[in-house]
Amino acid sequence: MSDESTEVGLPVEQHALPQRFENPGLPEHHPRLTDVDDGAAKRSERIVVVLFMLSALGTIGAIVAYFTVPPGATIASIRLSTMLIGFGLAATFIFAGAASVHWSKSLMNDHEKIEYRHPMVSDTETREQASEMLADGMSDTGLSRRGAIKGAMITAVALAPLGFAVPLIGSVGGDWDISKFRHTMWKKGLRLTHDPTGRPIKASDVTIGSAVHVIPEGLNKLEHPLDEKSKAMVLVIRLDPRDLHEAPDREGWSYEGIVAYSKVCTHVGCPVALYEQRTHHLLCPCHQSTFDISNGAKVIFGPADRPLPQLPITVDTEGYLVAQSDFHEPVGPSFWERLK
């Protein structure tokens, strides 16, 4: 092909691009129904007011749920309380967001504007212009003319933080003894049992590659079992002993390739329970922290900054798995007085 033609056989001159494009300017402005019909504007205003009031009712509902349906000692009661508070907070912000969007799209000024870029010089004239623009923006909202919207918005915004503040303040009088995180109910000779049945586990029943969810024997008989389970839950995994790399100070903490590690992630406390048999990796589903079970449950990926605590185990005279002691370090994420 010659230099004077393109792939389609046309002269190069016909494919030359212009050196610059003319500014097409702003498109023609089309007024909305609310701009020309006072009745439509009033209807939109009422919709905004109703949405803001529904937002306020959502906050009130969350507070009422917190006091009338407190979390009890069972998983079902905790779920119900959390769900009701969550629904209230969701309504708070969903309806507030919907009100803001509808307000801006139907009632605020929608004229297209051009803002030219200028050097950022903080002189008197610039500050005055900025003040005028802020004043124009406030004028566009129509707050001075739409008192109902202003009142509904202020009510919703004022109540919204209470949905978080009231449960937080209500928990201040709770148990803040952080030393309890340093110890669990595990002790020497206490049997490992299936979660949630409480049936003891024989070492011979744990096959290579399997993962067993474990709680301490007698946990289900406690007055508040969930309080202790949140600290003492364990995952038992059996590896081929040849794949297990034990640190010198942890020799004897496992039994014939069976290891036991805390299920409480060291990032923010989610339960880690996704075990990859081939890689011996244990994954936390919340933030994808990954631990290598074959190498002391060390962190190999994710935000967790320390390994999972290991529970030293052995077997009793009947072949059941038992603990040698409690964990040698606090379980769960970092907390006050603990940096790592």
Automatic annotation (TrEMBL):
Belongs to the Rieske iron-sulfur protein family. Coiled coil: none annotated. Iron-sulfur subunit of the cytochrome bc1 complex, an essential component of the respiratory electron transport chain required for ATP synthesis. The bc1 complex catalyzes the oxidation of menaquinol and the reduction of cytochrome c in the respiratory chain. The bc1 complex operates through a Q-cycle mechanism that couples electron transfer to generation of the proton gradient that drives ATP synthesis. The keyword Iron applies. Residues 231-322 form the Rieske domain. Its main location: membrane. PROSITE patterns: RIESKE. Its cofactor is [2Fe-2S] cluster. The chain crosses the membrane at residues 47-68, 80-103, 148-170. Keywords: 2Fe-2S, Cell membrane, Disulfide bond, Electron transport, Iron, Iron-sulfur, Membrane, Metal-binding, Oxidoreductase, Respiratory chain, Transmembrane, Transmembrane helix, Transport. The keyword Phosphoprotein does not apply. This is Cytochrome bc1 complex Rieske iron-sulfur subunit. SUPFAM superfamilies: ISP domain. Gene3D superfamilies: Rieske [2Fe-2S] iron-sulphur domain. It is found in: Cell membrane. It is a multi-pass membrane protein. It holds the Pfam family Rieske.
